[in-house]
Structure formats: C-alpha cells, structure tokens
Amino acid sequence: MITGSTAGIGAAFASRLAADGHNLVLVARDEKRLREQAADLHDRHGVEAEVLRADLSEDDGIAAVEARLSDRKHPVDLLVNNAGFGNRGRYLEVPLADELRMMKVHCEAVLRLTTAAAETMRARGRGGVINVASIAAFFPRGTYGASKAWVVQFTQGAAKDLASAGVRLMALCPGFVRTEFHARAGIKPDSVPSWMWLDADKLVTAALKDFARGKALSIPDPRYKAMTGLAKLAPRAAVSVVSSNVGRPPRKR
C-alpha cells in the first residue's frame, strides 16, 4: 500500500513495486488520477492495483485506510506512508488551521496507519513499513521540519520495539526531489541550488536497498548524508539561518 501514490515519490514507489511484480493498493485524494494510475500500472506490468480514495487530513479518510490495513483476508505486506505536503510561508504566516492539518497528515495519520499495519503484520510474523520523512527532520525548518522529526523518532523507536516480531520499519529522509510537492509548497526550482535536486526513481531504488538491508533510517544520497553530518558539527545558529532560507521566498517585513 502506498499513500500519496499519484505523484512524486509515491508514484515512483508504485512504478518500481509494480515493475517488481507486486500487486498494489493505491491511496490518494483524487479518484480519477488513482484509477488512471491503476490502469496504467496494470497495462504496463500486469499487476492488480486496488484504488482507495482517502483524504488523510480527515478522520474518515484515515479510518478508511486503517480498515483496509486491518483486513486479514487481504493482508498488506508493505506500507509506504508517503502522503504529505508543505505549507507556503513561514511560521505565523501560515493559518493555524493549515498547520494543524499538516500535523494530522504527517503525524496522526502516520501513527494510526503504522499501528494498523504493524498489528496485522506482527500477527503474521512478517511485513514492513516505510515512513517517508524528510532531510528537514534534521534542520530547524518550522512546523514542517518538526513534524518530520517526529516521524523519524517514532519510526526508529517502533523499529526497535518490533524487530523481534519480524516487522521492519524504516524512516526515509529525502532531500529536494523534482515533484509536485515543491510547486504546491511555493518552492521555485531556481531558489534551490541545482546540485540539491534528486531524481525520484533513483531515490526509491536506494531506499528499497536500505530497507532490504534492515536499516531503520535511510538518507539515500551521499550529498545529503554529508550535509546531515556537517549539520551536527556546525554552530546551531548557522545551520538555522541556512535551513530557514533555502527554497523559501524572502522573509516578509
């Protein structure tokens, strides 16, 4: 199962897993795009792709996905919690309702869906969850970075708790990837250095290799691994200045 499957990293996961012969459950808000994606994956790879329309910023949407994950007659072997978004603007420039909606998708939905999946996986003695976080989890980046830091901490802790049960969990921390995500968040490509952009398909390939190796944390690019290491050594104030400005519009006066 892949949430946020119709674009970006989610679509790359769907394409790669379908190419490997896995049947899929595709989850997103736009049913038309979901059905088009399911038909395309079936035609190209001969796999079955189930469609589940759900808005993970709403309780009903989360509950619908929880119910599907709890179906023991049609178990899900791998859950990719990929759905997410970024808000335009800095802290106090974004309406509180939008901040809370983001926290619901990034934190509450991830917790509830991971729990629903892990419970059935533990009963079977096998399965896995990949929670898509962000390199922003390691840098001061407002509510977005804080929510992704929660995803990393939660996933790593749960991975330890479930290791003996045959259930693997991994937090995936990509950097800037050329997807719809950044356009929706108001991030212009030319505001980010060209060397920082990653390819979604290569990212997914590296992530799945890390998952197969049993890693609980994946930063699937040497550039971002180096950045994370340097951030631990650099003065916190300097790190904060850089991370707060890369990919963002000028600060409002």
TrEMBL record:
Pfam families linked: adh_short (PF00106)
SUPFAM superfamilies linked: NAD(P)-binding Rossmann-fold domains
Keywords: Oxidoreductase
Family according to the record: Belongs to the short-chain dehydrogenases/reductases (SDR) family.
Protein name, as recorded: SDR family oxidoreductase
